[in-house]
């Protein structure tokens, strides 16, 4: 199915330059001279890289049929990462290559959304922030707060990140799933 570039929306799967990707943002521009255009930010399923593509407002864009499925992380073992469909209780297993950067953010019961194109999983989306428990961190040095000082901490999944000095082992913190950085205390 093809649509006009001005109808592109965030979250749509498209085919461009013999590649499949997901639209992560669009901006409609009308320069002083010339025709209007649509700047679309697209993340490739093949490479995982994001690029900006310029479409004339009258260009046709091929939309790829996709399906989103809500799953819940169950556990990980030598065969892969196991997710459960909470409506049917079916288990779906993904290999480590598919999970990639998300593996050190997965905790039991974490809801995720998986995008399928032609029956094949192409991307996994986590919630914007997740709560994790700090398992290790060095003690903060008193009087070392003149600036926004940080220290390294390890959370329950093994992820190491920078946190403020007042965070101690046993504390629960919110971590951004986009950049894996400390957001706040939970």
Can you write the helix and strand succession as a string?
Answer: EEEEEEEEEHEEEEEEE
Q: State the strand order across the main sheet.
A: 1-6-2-3-4-5
Query: Can you name the CATH architecture of the largest domain?
Result: Roll
Gross geometry? flat
Tally of extended strands?
16
CATH class division of the largest domain: Mainly Beta
Low-confidence runs (pLDDT<50, min 5 residues)?
A: none
Residues in helices, as a percent range: under 10%
Oligomer: single chain
DSSP summary: helix tally? 1
Structural class assignment: mainly beta
CATH topology of the largest domain: SH3 type barrels
What is the C-alpha radius of gyration, as a whole number of Å?
21 Å
Mean pLDDT reading: 87
Q: Beta-strand level of the residues, as a percent range? A: over 45%
């Amino acid at each position: 199915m093809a649509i006009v570039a001005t109808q592109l929306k965030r979250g749509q799967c498209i085919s461009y330059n013999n590649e499949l990707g997901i639209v992560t943002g669009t901006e409609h521009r009308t320069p002083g001279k010339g025709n209007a255009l649509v700047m679309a930010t697209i993340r490739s399923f093949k490479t995982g890289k994001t690029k900006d593509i310029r479409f004339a407002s009258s260009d046709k864009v091929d939309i790829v049929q996709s399906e989103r499925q809500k799953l819940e992380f169950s556990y990980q073992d030598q065969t892969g990462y196991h997710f459960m469909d909470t409506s049917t209780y079916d288990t779906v297993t993904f290999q480590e290559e598919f999970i990639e950067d998300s593996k050190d953010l997965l905790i039991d019961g974490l809801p995720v959304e998986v995008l399928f194109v032609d029956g094949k999983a192409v991307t996994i989306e986590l919630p914007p922030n997740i709560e994790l428990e700090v398992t290790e961190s060095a003690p903060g040095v008193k009087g070392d707060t003149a600036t926004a000082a940080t220290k390294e901490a390890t959370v329950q999944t093994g992820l190491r990140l920078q946190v403020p000095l007042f965070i101690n082992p046993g504390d629960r913190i919110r971590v951004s799933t986009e950049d894996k950085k400390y957001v706040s205390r939970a």
